[in-house]
Amino acid sequence: MSYRLSTRSRARLQGVHPALVAVVEAAILITPVDFMVTEGLRSPARQAALVRAGASRTLNSRHLTGHAVDVAALVEGRVRWDWPLYGRIAEAFRAAAAARGTPIVWGGDWPTLRDGPHFELDRKAFA
Ligand SMILES: [Zn+2]
């Protein structure tokens, strides 16, 4: 079966770069693990609050420009943070991005402070 984005997830894609929205919309159709979009475009004030809280390390986040989204895995409609679920979602994102020729970066591939829920457009292609 294939999943679909909820109304709330779609609302959270407002202001996100169309190339990344297209990847999210394609990924939901092929992912073996359902997901919701938890955050897309972020205000500077919210970014500063996240840094203060220790949830983010940078004031130069890709979320500020609409080049990043965060997702949460859903199992039977409930959010799960189990790491393996995010690898499976990332595979769907990778396939969806490759099919569109849209280079993306998964936060789960970062060498330090891996960020499994985070996907962004590659800075090399999308400044
Ligand atoms: Zn993020």
Automatic annotation (TrEMBL):
<dbReference type="Pfam" id="PF13539">
    <property type="entry name" value="Peptidase_M15_4"/>
</dbReference>
<protein>
    <submittedName>
        <fullName>M15 family metallopeptidase</fullName>
    </submittedName>
</protein>
<feature type="domain" description="Peptidase M15C">
    <location>
        <begin position="56"/>
        <end position="121"/>
    </location>
</feature>
<dbReference type="InterPro" id="IPR009045">
    <property type="entry name" value="Zn_M74/Hedgehog-like"/>
</dbReference>
<dbReference type="InterPro" id="IPR039561">
    <property type="entry name" value="Peptidase_M15C"/>
</dbReference>
